Structures
1.
Amino acid sequence: MNILVTGPNGFLAKNVIKKLKKANHNILEVSYKDSLASYKDQIVKFQPDVTIHFAWFGGNNYNDATSPNQFYKNVPQSIELLGYLRECNKHQTFIGLGTACEYGEFTSPVDELDKEDPFDLYGLSKLTFKNYSQVFCKVENLNWIWIRPFYVYGPGDVPTRLVPKVINALLDNKDVIFDECRSIVDYLYIDDFVNAIAAIVDKHTEVYGVYNICSNKQYKVRDIISEIKEIIPHTGQVVFDPLLNKKRQNYTCGSNAKLKRTIKWNPKVSIRVGLIKTIKNIQNERKQ
């Protein structure tokens, strides 16, 4: 199968590409670091059966998520990509990567029927392109799938994200100070995410619409940090200071029932096993 993947250097995309290559798919990698227009002829010649659109600027920290660049740097290029797919002749499937942030604030696990109400520009820009791509694919007779990952972690994650940040600090025996960390989130190990995407690709002609990819479990951020602390021997302190200025205390958890029904997928890696694997990977990288 010919599979076009944008944003191949990102955490999620890199791992998905490895899996798809092992399954002997032909992969065309398109990076937004280059001019998207420079790929037009390659894309049309490649004639993708499936396009997986990972590429997206920002969203990994608060400043990115609240920047107008979420629109200026992402939506026009994403629309441009769809225009190139229009010039490909065969029937195709477009898989867009959304975000749990599209849902906004909830107090119980969200499913795909819940109304979206994003609270930042990252979520709003993703939702904007989601709606555009859905209508575009309907008009152009492309199969359309929209994926909403929740908190995916594991080896190769962005160093500034919570899990690798805490791991590196404790391996360096540094003190780490947080606010009370009362947010409740859904964490999913990268291998489980990758297996879900691979299964969707394999059955792409039978799959349509929006799908959460998540563990269907709820974790306090405070407990994740404490779990890492238990695994790593260290001399530094981990402090949860209620006097610190508090960021938004989110509840970001989802239901994966629709995906499980559709592709018979189940997450297999427990949070402790996933954290141990992530810690070992970081330790090995630090030795190199």
2.
Amino acid sequence: MKAAVIIPAYNEEQAISKVIQDIPNNIVSEIVVINNSSTDSTAEAAARSGATVLEERTKGYGSSCLKGIEYAASRGYEVLIFLDGDYSDYPEEAELLLRPIELGSYDFVLGSRVIGNYEKGSLPIRSRIGSFIAGLLINIFWGFKYTDLGPFRAIKTEKLLELKMEDKWFGWTVEMQIKALKKKLNVLEVPVSYRKRIGKSKVTGTLKGSLMAGIIILKVIFSELFKD
């Protein structure tokens, strides 16, 4: 299947080239980096490494992903793979996510760090607690037990477009996971590896960032519940 990788990036000049270089070029046709108003040389580093670089001036993780989806869909890609630009994911594991979709069994495959092999200190306790609470609520409301809200994921483009994604911030990942269940997509979690990121996290790196992300995630969960 014709697949593209979408990488939202904000100030990741030290990591982005490593991410791009580790993506298996035999399974993806294009790597798209969305430069989200970086103040460093992220865009230049990504371009030098062979990625297509798009600019998104509206700040937010979801804003970057939406920009990437619009571009990739216009290019006819059948599957989209998302991962972070900080080198915490293992890009070489992309085939673990892509294979179940190619075999025709699943529409959406989420890479779970929690059930995978994660490096000590790479998943802060507040991040794991947040994923557990979100997973518990989703299981109660929609009957599927997610173990993680990780960024590493693959989904059929046509199915993703049907979800009509809206969130422009940190609720984007959980929005996709909930809407996938509401749309009755065939969903699978697979274990993936995870390591300490290069540089400081913009979300879990601070208590304020973690609290903000947690509030946004809960807001998305209950917003989707009330839409039902």
3.
Amino acid sequence: MSDSERWYSERLGMASTLVRWGHYGTPVLVLPTAGGDPWEIERQGVVAACGDLLAAGRVKLYSCDSVAGRAMIEGWGTTRQRMALLDAFHQYVRWEVVPAIRADSGADVPLVTAGASIGAFNALALLCRFPDAVASAVCMSGTYDLQPLYGGDFSDELYFSSPLHFLPGLDGPQLTQLRQRFAVLASGEGAWENVGASWRIGEVLGAKGVPNRVDSWGPEWEHDWPTWRRMLPTYLDELA
């Protein structure tokens, strides 16, 4: 059974929803796929797949709207506006969703981010941009270069939202803290999967000394919910 909270976000310019499952344990923010909503992981059986971890009080799952992802696939506004919304979405998570999760959890502790497909991109981006707030990321079947999805266009907002682009030049306290964090980059090699994307971003992370692991699940695992239902509890059992 889930609980939800809804508020108007000035950063997004629209109302947003945060949903929670569980009552105790490590807070885990699951970012939706591009067209998803906060209840997507419940409809797709991911919450049920994490049932043992929830029942044992090891994790609390949270999810929010996929605002920037929906804007991208539905073509809201101009390309530049959609790229700016991606940056605004990350800021919204850091400065609105994270405080809401901390208030609900009663603890000021770094959380785990997770997601599949575009959700994996956002999970990793939040870890890399805000290592003060995120301890680790579970990135499943990720797409890490979004420039082709914006028609090949590029902007400062996309640069600073994309670890593939900003990490090579990152230095200072943010990088120092990021080197104390961890990302798992998991992918199948079946239909619609691209494990090469995980290897590529893993090399970028490794070149900056950021701990990460690329896990290939093999050709029997496709880019679809049965894969992610198996992956997420497997990795949360390791990290929570």
